[in-house]
Amino acid sequence: ARAPVRVRANAKELHFNVDGTALKKMQSGVEKLAKVVGVTLGPKGRNVVLETKFGSPKIVNDGVTVAKEVDLEDPVENIGAKLVRQAASKTNDVAGDGTTTATILSAAMIAEGMKIVVAGANPVQITRGIDKTVSKLVKELKAMSTEVQDKDLANVATVSAGGNEEIGQLISDAMDKVGRKGVITLEESKTAEDSMYVVEGMQFDRGYMSPYFVTDTERMVAEYENCRMLLVDKKIASARDIVGILEEAIKGGYPIVLLAEDVEQEPLATLVVNKIRGALKVAAMKAPGFGDRKSQYLEDIGILTGATVVKEELGLTLSKVGPEVLGNAAKIVLSKESCTIVGDGSTQDEINARVKQIRVLEENADAEYEKEKLNERIARLSGGVAIVQVGAQTETELKEKKLRVEDALNATKAAVEEGIVIGGGCTLLKLAAKVADIKETLDNDEQKIGADIVQRALAYPLKLIAENAGTNGSVAMERVQQSGDPNHGFNAATGKYEDLMSAGIIDPTKVIRCCLENAASVARTFLTSDVVVTEIPEPEAAPAAAAPDMGY
Questions:
Q1: 10 Å Cβ neighbour count for 121?
Q2: By C-alpha distance, which of 453, 412, 417 is closest to 435?
Q3: Is the pTM of this model over 0.85?
Q4: Which of 107, 215, 374, 513 has the least CB density, counted as fewest CB within 10 Å?
Q5: Phi and psi for 386 in degrees, rounded to 5?
Q6: For residue 9, is pLDDT > 70?
Q7: Letter string b/e over residues 476-512, b meaning 16 or more CB atoms within 10 A of that residue's CB
């Protein structure tokens, strides 16, 4: 008979909120996290050094990366830190930047809210007030937002990368090349320099099936211009199936490239022999991708070149089709491990329709991986991918720089989506001035207190940016509030008070919106908590005694 399975559950410890003790402890965790993350805020923010178990330490300026590393010893404090970390992670997922601001805002709303809740106010009504105020402020924010001009893109990227103008220029150049909806990817450079290059046309990591197809022996590539393409969504098993098409190619005198799931030995040998004799300009390659994705890629190539994919679902068999299924490519370059196909531009309308269709799929896709793959397909169809290469002298610097460039890239994309507002924490301060009107519309006094909490919290990021730049935060706040000009603010990089739009200190509206919404969400859940349940840590077992010295 089998012995019964025993499950041991550890006892839990209950922390009741007597005189606000549990919440105060959680708040202390929040404060610790905000302090660590807050160091990185603004153009004069410093870095945080993170110890890693293996390899060199990480030196980071990215809020969410720092927040993920913070684990506190006290379980209740740690819960507080984890709550605020959610605001940073969510902002990072949606907007890709602004994680430090989201953390600071959450901590600020919690700090201001705690003063009121500990004094005995009803947190439920207060959080309702916070909720209503924030949703109205988001509408105000959209009204303040302006559409981003091409010249502003470099500024958005520069501000996000912590004032690094080279990075800003690189990302702006990349967007110029591939368009605002184009795909820009990051790579680590082999040198210490930053650079950017554009891959024209469709590129896949599949090469020629035999080195005998090479036309340029020095570079070991097969290169054809004004070439026809045959796309087959299955194996080419017999040379007889393709004889008709090859004869047409010899008559027409045009080069032909075959893309199939696979080409068996016999038909491949036929192609190679004809190529070596010079009777036929031909190359063969395996179709990129696997399974469903392979069929989608073939369809995409078909749309780019105007070819019909030969597959049995369409009632087409390889032995019976003629040159009408062939597509045209302006240029094809095949190397050992990659291929580039450049369309001839005759199928632009079909390409646009296909891109539209893939965009809808991307919007409805849930998985991050799926979205990435669909985005790649859009980029390949719409004419290229820009690759930004990040270089640095040491690996530690490279990791830090890559995180900055990633933030800058996400900020630029966010700016294209929802527009821009003035940066440096000044937009949040301008929003605080609008809370007074919103207060009039709220139902009761406790909700109005919620609005006051938001109003006070909105000043924290600007204060911290100023403090990090060595200026008195309260003075900076007063001077920005006194000015009537909506674009006037504090430029922490230079220490001047000026028109931030023309100075190029700008933030994406989407980033500010996500910071506000996520900070309010975390503050609401925090303030309405009353009991904390944590696990009782098990006592560590005593280490075994070392064996006595055996006389060695």
A1: 17
A2: 453
A3: no
A4: 215
A5: -95, 135
A6: no
A7: bbeebeeeeebbbbbbbbeeebeebbebbbbbbbbbb
